[in-house]
Amino acid sequence: MLPWLIRLAAIVPITAGLAGALTGAGFLGEPAGAATGSHMRYLSGLLLGIGLAALWCAADWPRRRDGFGLLCVLVTLGGAARALGWVLDGAPPWPHRLALVMELGVVPVLWWATRATTKTS
Fold first, then answer.
1. Which own/partner contact pairs does 42-45 have at CB distance under 8 Å and 24+ positions apart?
2. What is the DSSP letter of 118?
3. For 25-40, how does the pLDDT look when each residue is reduced to its tens digit (9 = 90+)?
4. What is the C-alpha separation between 6 and 12, in angstroms, rounded?
5. Which of 18, 54, 90, 109 is least crowded, fewest Cβ atoms below 10 Å from its Cβ?
6. Mapping DSSP to helix (H, G, I), strand (E, B) and coil, where does residue 70 land?
7. Which element (helix H / strand E) includes 98?
8. What is the DSSP letter of 102?
9. Helix extents (H) in the chain
10. What is the rounded end-to-end Cα distance, in angstroms, of the chain?
11. pLDDT digit string (tens) for 35-66?
12. Quick one: average pLDDT of 11-16?
């Protein structure tokens, strides 16, 4: 069941990463210069890669479980940075708040579930 939940959750970074890679800062609905657009596309490519790596981990779950743990740490660190931005810069728009739920809520729960299944396996 856990690999299927991971596949389902991976739809979010794959979709958002692909959209951001294709549209740059336009994905956010805000105007931006070339530097911001370039940085947005780069980060979106990383997000797309994280989603694809999660699918890869789910495909051979027993052997790739630890790799998924690393992905969880990366996503949670990104969420912590986003939360810091909220504190320093003010509340972000609702799509970013939903991303925080994924980064600091869903992903840590999935990671915890992988640890729980490791102990019972």
1. 44/16, 44/17, 44/18, 44/19, 44/20, 45/17, 45/21
2. H
3. 887 777 788 898 899 9
4. 10
5. 90
6. helix
7. helix 94-101
8. I
9. 2-23, 34-59, 61-89, 94-101, 107-120
10. 14
11. 988 999 999 999 999 999 999 999 999 999 99
12. 96
Q: Would you call 43 exposed, middle or buried from its count of C-beta atoms within 10 A (0-12, 13-18, 19+)? A: middle
* The token pair that represents 3 in the structure block: 């690999």
Q: Chain-centre distance of CA 23, in angstroms?
A: 18
Q: Do residues 25 and 37 make contact, with C-beta atoms less than 8 angstroms apart?
A: yes
Q: Which residues contact 78 (CB under 8 A, 6 or more apart)?
A: 103
Name the residue with tokens 């890669």: 49
Q: Which residues fall within 8 angstroms of residue 3, CB to CB, at 6 or more apart?
A: 58, 59, 61
Cβ neighbours, 10 Å, residue 66 = 10
96 lies in which domain range? 2-120
Say how many domains are in the chain: 1
How far apart, in whole angstroms, are the C-alpha atoms of residue 73 and residue 71?
Answer: 5
Burial-class residue 104 by CB neighbours within 10 Å (0-12, 13-18, 19+). Answer: middle
Q: How many residues does the chain have?
A: 121
Q: Are residues 43 and 74 in contact, defined by beta-carbon separation less than 8 angstroms?
A: no
